[in-house]
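Here we describe the complex-level prediction in full. Unlike the single-chain runs in Section 2.1, the four entities below were treated as one system.
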Amino acid sequence: MAKLKLGMVGGGQGAFIGAVHRIASRIDGQWELVAGALSSDPARAAASAEELGIEASRSYASYEDMAKAEAARDDGIDAVAIVTPNHVHAGPAIAFLKAGIPVICDKPLSSTMEDAEAIAQAAKDTGTLFVLTHNYTGYPLIRQAREMIERGDLGEIRVVNVEYVQDWLAEETTGKQADWRTDPARSGAGGCVGDIGTHAFNLASYVTGLETESLAADLDAFVPGRRVDDNVHVMLRFKGGAKGMLWASQVAVGNENGLRLRIAGTKGGIEWAQENPNVMTFTRFGEPKQILTRAGAGASPAGLRGTRTPGGHPEGYLEGFATIYAEAAALVRHAKGAPLPEGVHTPDIEDGLLGMRFISACIASSRNNAAWTML
Amino acid sequence: MAKLKLGMVGGGQGAFIGAVHRIASRIDGQWELVAGALSSDPARAAASAEELGIEASRSYASYEDMAKAEAARDDGIDAVAIVTPNHVHAGPAIAFLKAGIPVICDKPLSSTMEDAEAIAQAAKDTGTLFVLTHNYTGYPLIRQAREMIERGDLGEIRVVNVEYVQDWLAEETTGKQADWRTDPARSGAGGCVGDIGTHAFNLASYVTGLETESLAADLDAFVPGRRVDDNVHVMLRFKGGAKGMLWASQVAVGNENGLRLRIAGTKGGIEWAQENPNVMTFTRFGEPKQILTRAGAGASPAGLRGTRTPGGHPEGYLEGFATIYAEAAALVRHAKGAPLPEGVHTPDIEDGLLGMRFISACIASSRNNAAWTML
Amino acid sequence: MAKLKLGMVGGGQGAFIGAVHRIASRIDGQWELVAGALSSDPARAAASAEELGIEASRSYASYEDMAKAEAARDDGIDAVAIVTPNHVHAGPAIAFLKAGIPVICDKPLSSTMEDAEAIAQAAKDTGTLFVLTHNYTGYPLIRQAREMIERGDLGEIRVVNVEYVQDWLAEETTGKQADWRTDPARSGAGGCVGDIGTHAFNLASYVTGLETESLAADLDAFVPGRRVDDNVHVMLRFKGGAKGMLWASQVAVGNENGLRLRIAGTKGGIEWAQENPNVMTFTRFGEPKQILTRAGAGASPAGLRGTRTPGGHPEGYLEGFATIYAEAAALVRHAKGAPLPEGVHTPDIEDGLLGMRFISACIASSRNNAAWTML
Amino acid sequence: MAKLKLGMVGGGQGAFIGAVHRIASRIDGQWELVAGALSSDPARAAASAEELGIEASRSYASYEDMAKAEAARDDGIDAVAIVTPNHVHAGPAIAFLKAGIPVICDKPLSSTMEDAEAIAQAAKDTGTLFVLTHNYTGYPLIRQAREMIERGDLGEIRVVNVEYVQDWLAEETTGKQADWRTDPARSGAGGCVGDIGTHAFNLASYVTGLETESLAADLDAFVPGRRVDDNVHVMLRFKGGAKGMLWASQVAVGNENGLRLRIAGTKGGIEWAQENPNVMTFTRFGEPKQILTRAGAGASPAGLRGTRTPGGHPEGYLEGFATIYAEAAALVRHAKGAPLPEGVHTPDIEDGLLGMRFISACIASSRNNAAWTML
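The structure predicted for the assembly as a whole is:
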């Protein structure tokens, strides 16, 4: 089966998430990177392209050039990955959507609601595929949790507790990663809430299928001089009566990348933590807790679908991310006429808009003394 | 050293917490149980007394009789343990305080704020010792955590996350333990928030030393027909700017007795969970996380003070509870002239009142759509 | 119910295991300590007795005096606890057995096989009760594991892996605890193998019910100048074909008191570790692993029998030890005519002899280049 | 940088390890698969090749044809991956070595010592690169453990405890994976000892740098009718006086892929388990245990070298395997003149021979009643 051709905007030397996208795209052998506008700095763009084996003729000075040129080629890219800081999502996303090139975009959707809506409008107007890399939804046990809830293993959901806690911004920090994430002009008005709060919110929504009605949020910027939030406390009310709590923090000393989800329903409860993602516990009320392992005994169809190795051979962050890319490939092929495999659940433009509404609601609520705010 | 004489109100056959208090009182060999008004049912009271080796003459039909008779004896009890349901705390507490007999009372202080204040007034008027068994403060690593924060190991506290989650009331339940705890006439207006929310709140306050300024609470009664809350979400604002979240639940399927405390400051963070209480993790920002064990390498003076066995020989719930009794003994002996050993930190009447204000504030806030409510 | 009267030989100030025995004897309210020969140093014996509330007239200068005097009293002790170093077990044990006073003796049975056999002979000749405090058998989940295997939950046992690893003797150490344990004249020819290897061997035998046929052992004394072993590797062959490995060490840096048992049969497997003793995992072949908690869902009759608190309220080392004392009380009362409660499984003189044969076989095998040695 | 060209022998549809090798080769973007003799079944070979995007002209009917044809092409493969069952390692390995094409071969080296030595001879005679995929050495924390020991963090090593326990062969099983692994004609005389025992032995040797002097092994075939061992107990003696235990099992019910390594030295101890490979504990004697995370605080140069994501973003089995492929690429490029990057530690032919000697010694020892056998 021929590989699909991938382009990339952003992700030049020194970038973190661009390298992750590239590995994720390679793991299942569905994509090859052939074009890029890898940096706004022309020298870095060229050097990065060479290092990545991209032909000089397909290393572009700007995403506008790239969208135009690739759309015109017979062998043009099948999709573009946008891995720039948040404030540079809308420009390329809209350009490629309008050029009819599917977009795989990092989260959150954008730095402003206006830009986000413009992207959504472009996706709608053009009918071009848009995938948002809320990569944590790609973990097999997250797929299994979603399926278990859907088929009623937990009964009616009552309580959702989600947290995403880190400590890398516990002190004033500089560096490529920290700089733009703490600059409202580039990250958007939300700091921690946009960078990782959206992941937590997306994950809870994805797994439970619950719709959030309103929230009450208390945001802080604990580090002196910080211009965006670095700690986020949220109470959630879901349609139908379930309740939730969400904690996101970049100053929670002792935590590296602590994304953790706990859900309790009338009949059962589950718990999963990203740092050891091959394990999930499940308790049927009144019975002993079970340890469900990825691809192990008790794996559900959805849990098995995205796994590459047997139980006990741990998969990690990159494999979960790769599942997003594998599904993006399936969707691109489907758009060209191939049948769609079962179980494709990749986050899309609607999830992106929902994430933006979450950020906005948190900020609005917090500014209004944590008043309940509709999503 | 002669043992102190203990009386007990409540705790007859079939009771849970009475038996716990008795074991706790025995562990360090400081107390012997010699008198009781163990049940409002005379037959059960007599049978329970006989089983416990209490002489028939000191098995009383009522706490009033007991307070009077014991106060009159030369060899009267040195303290009374009150282990009745919440609504029967005030009566005996006030009776014994007025009789000059020190009181060791289970938590929460009472079922109503009025009763709680009456107890406090009696304690103040009589100057008699009052100990509240927030037993989780007795764990050695909790003592160590408090000391570490006091001496600055964590820097300035920013974020507190405390939870106490169970699942035993996830369905409609009957039985001696469940009945009174879900009956507002006996438990007070708070259900889960009073029964275990207060433990969580007390623990967070005890360890951090932070004063809570206000809170926003969202309480639910998920089980159909339940008349008190069974799930509690709270956001906390502490004096000085720290923030907190508190989750208490009796419907969180998959949890037995999940009291867990996480604290992050400018310099460090700790994490402790009651179900494996001999272990606490501590991270100095930028260094590897450490596993601190009870009585192991890294134990602090306060952490060592209340331990009975070497590291790796686990102590549990009963030993933590026993420390409260050992300290009550020290306080009783101190009231008689003995020097007070270092490090006695047993919760007292003020902690009891604070717990009642916490319950009231949670209920008031929740009724007011989770509005911020002063404590 | 009147308490039984306990005497103690050894356990004066500064001793570790004596204090443990005393707490264990108190927890269930079955025993009161009334007599002792607490130290071979008369001043320490007297001071210890006073501290423990033993009347001066029942604080004896020697165990011989004590056995004689207590046997002569109408209110003499119901049993004696022997908590001296290994080489001082036989003397008092035989004296009390001959005086008709039941003996509760710390492990291993003795420092030499000759002494051990003499104790056994005395127990046999006198018909007096002898209890050996292999306390780890008192943990509720160990009782449950034994019951599960007995009733066939694991099928036929194939493989046993037991280890007991510590690090407190990783360097040359002095102090009351270390001194006698590393002196062959006092501990016996076995160091680590006698002190903790026997615990591991006893636990594996107790839980599985398997009889050891032969073993091959490789013992080392890693610390320069050490006169007894401090690291023990053993391969085990059980009657019927099962196989085992045993590792005991006092130089395994990073381990406090790591007693851990894993057993696999044709149908299932279990795993338990003493440092968090309220949890055991159980896997039925082909099904998800279950987490069985003490007194939680899935608790078996034997698992429930010795528990004092609900699931999630951890019990520890002292409670497991207390179960040995509670059962010793039941056996003493039974010898006086009371019915014996179900499920009394306290290790006895036979277990003591078996432990001695294990030590001897390990030493003999190791001296013979780890040749297979019959037990 | 142009990708290297990879060929594959074995790994057609339905194979496990072939797919793993392919993903591993893709992750770091160093290899592209261009040729194969994927199956001895021509139809399956062709179908597999098509699925993998291998041109029909480079899908060969036999490895002999492939070696010859690829060696003759200007754009011939830069290396071949051999992923056949053990008894089909020697044929292709020798053919490609003789053709001057570097070999990346799955472990163990072969099914017989004779074949293994023939491979080694061919490697020596031709001077062609040979890499053995003991993939577990590719985990970053394993690299770090090796470096820590090398630089003396643990002092002098005393005790090594390594185990690799699974349960997938606990009952009689059929299927592509089980069949050849339990057939001595295909797997070699060793079953479990060859399949996973060698991994455990390799890992312990790799990390500690210790040379094994002799071993005593007790092997069993527990499943009725099984013709090779399925449970392996080994005691190890290392040069210089350190001792070890090794347990490998495919019938240890409750274990998926439990490769676990514990090492204690005079100054420190470490513990690592493959199923959660991003975490290792390290204890300096007398200090609190530290949790070292992959790429987290405390990461050493070697620990950082092979990581792709920040701490808390778990890497897994495939990434560890990919490091072997990345290093094979570095070695291939180095053979062509490129400088060799620091820290390349890929297992080679010597490790393969050592593994074969380990298997032989275990079998010989076990047949000789576990007599000590030189390696």
